[in-house]
Sequence to fold (909 residues):
Amino acid sequence: MNKIVRLKIGRILFAGLILMAFSFPATVIAQPPDVVKKDLLDKGKQVYYKRCVWCHGVEGGGDGPAADRLFTRPRNFIQGTFKIRFTDSGELPLEEDLIRTVTNGLPGSAMPAWGGFLSPDEITAVVQFVKTLVQDRSFDDVEDETVVVQEFGSNPWGTKEPYHLGIPQEAIDQGKEIFIKNKCFECHGGEGRGDGNPTMKDDWGFPIVAADWQQCWNFRGSRRHHFDPFNVVRTVSTGLNGTPMPNFKDQITVEDRWKLAAFVNSLCPRKKIDKLTSKPVPDFLISSLYTEGDIAESIEDPMWKAEDDDPSIRERSEETKENPRKNYIAMAGQITRGKRNFDPKTDNLWVSSRWNAEKNVIYYLVEYHIRFLSSDPEYPDAVALQWPAKLSELFGAEKPYFINGDSKKPVDIWKASFMAQDYNSTNPPSETGYKLDVKVEETIGHGFDAITAKESEPKVKVVDAIFKQGKVSVLFKRELTTEGEFDVQIPSEQFIPVSFLQWSGDDKEKDEHMAISTWYYTILEPPLPDSLYYMPPIMAAVFVCFQGWLVWMTKRTRKMFDDGKSRRDFIPPDL
Amino acid sequence: MNKTFISFIVFVGVLLGFHNVVFPIMDIKEFSWVMNRYVYYLLIPITLIFINIILRLKPPVSLIALMVWVLGFYFYKYVLYPPIPWTLFITYMVMWSIGTFLYVSQDAHTFREFRKPIVKTIIGEYKLARIVVFALLPVLVGWMTYNNIYPAYQEPVELRTVHPAPPATTKVHGKTWTLETARNPYRVDEQDNYKNSFPFLDADKNEYMKNVTQGGSLFFENCHYCHGDQLNGNGMFSHVFNPTPANFIDPGTIAMLRESFIFWRVSKGGPGLPNESTPWSSAMPPWEEHLTTEEIWKIILFEYWYTGWHPRTFDTEESYVGQWEKEGKPAGVH
Fold:
């Protein structure tokens, strides 16, 4: 049967299923799997051995040259286990499912979106070849294999791409109850950061972690619609084959699955997503807000509260409107020098800042998601700010080398290492969180392997630090100007380079084996100038005077015409 | 009702109707001589002229000037494709405004007619207009001043040289390579002969594909994090780094460079860059720290094979295929 006809039948079937989902409570339509299209195999094989073999391996065992350095590992096709499907748990996927996976990629993993790089024909062909790599079962086994296309209902609130805002709070609250009732927190954590269970394994015995709902751009099944609640409905309905994620189709009605999706979806901050990389666009400038009076030294203080969302997409609430925004800092493994980190446990930080000139202080609140902290004092967790130590000696855009500086341009590193009190990664979610025992080190970097302790008196303090529901928050404080030779001196109204380093103790990271950001800028915004209040009225008044002059001049000219003192310009009559 | 007013309403109505209804219909993706955005645009003045003549509206010169100016604005802002940068937009609009002014001031009749409503507003013959204009303009000026003074901080723009001038020689693993003459020792045959060969499958059949397979394996163990599974610079870590990793698919990177240049860049990485290329923020490792010379050349061989580009060569160069076998050492090594 030709492809278009098949597709159409598929669509009609699918539409029919949705219709039936509303008319019958439990519809089961079993159909045979999509058999392999043999005529496309040659072409598919060629695509596979040029593009896919590097990760998925010569026989599709998920063991290509790249595999051992990836977390999560590439798919092993041999068992026919596929995560993102429209079909029931344990069943083979539809051909359409595989085509969508190849076309859109799997965000948060190394699998890129191949649509736009390969033609639709090539993608269909390579999917046929991948089907033949499944050894333990067969897409051609129409006798024993059946697939049941799940019922998903449709978005009851009609929210729109790209951000799907405007789902009623009532549905979100009901969704939260469903989340609690079905114990989703056991794996996904109390606030959905995937920090519930550190011991999970996939079908092949490799460690696996639950999705972080507050970073929905890393959802494998988002199909490049990162904020669409449908992704959650599909995953809850079908489960993820090969992982501990079961389906909940019998426990939760379709209607309730949408409410659960509304809750999960509400947790994800709305940021602009770069289409090429499926990641939020970093906030390259961290503005430090000028604050009069005392700055709160408690992370829980309302002064430090702000939503993670981009304020131009979702407006801030009244309480947080005046607070500094949380800037998104993208992190990657340090894969440049020395011991490289190919699978960092944190892929972003959120940073906000306040300063006060009279008190000569600046604060940086650094926050990041991490599922599990270390219990081994040899490998504490840590996060650091990195500054050019000799800011005044840098010329133009010049900066020190971004990994611990270089021999000519040293960096000043403020590192907070910490262990959580009374913490065990298998503890149930704790609403109060864990206090952190913090040790602050100030070091000078002269190269990725040349870190020395500062001789001058330490000036950086961590005034508050907490690990709560999979999120670390550390509040750094320092004086703007200090005496130390290698201390960065922080001027206001200047762009100052700053970058960030992070170590996961649970992953046994230390020294240059870490996560890292590139150079960002921070600027200490001065208070609003007084001229902002008197200049606009003055300019308006000047303009009123000008208007008056214009009226006076025009009227005078008129009067001169009328009095005959001056002649109007003469225009000859039309001929 | 006042004919001028009707004419104005007609103008606004036609513009809104065309923009919201006709534009989406006529602006189709496939090229067509009839259904395109420029034909669509021409239809607007034709329609306007037609309606004004049929209804005998005879709009005054000032209204005509307004319509001409707005239609110009509409063209540059919404119709012209691809969209132009705002500086160019300002330039075009200044020219368009001058043109409109020349049109109304072409003879004394039209110019007087054009001035009439303005003068009447100023001296107060149009009372309502005067109040509105004279009250609104100072507010507008105040608001613009406020916006101007309100401090806005944007990250500084930094320029960098993407392909800096290479040094004459580079020393890798104790050997000095002269970049002018250095060749990829594994380029033993014409690359296009292996277009339809496949890594792993054909690795046992010939030397060239064996080296491509090894180079590719090394690439996917080390380089894809930044340069991407598709070699397009969109790897899973690429969004983190600034400068962003090079896109090898792009004709502006390996396609226009010599293999020896790539060898130098791969071996020395970010720290080996001159200052104009911001060595401090390049995440490119000095690969001589992680890979052997042979491995680096094999990765380069793979990158060209995978993308289909050929390394840049000069016409005067002799063919160097097989030179390693002949001389016992790769070209360019002392």
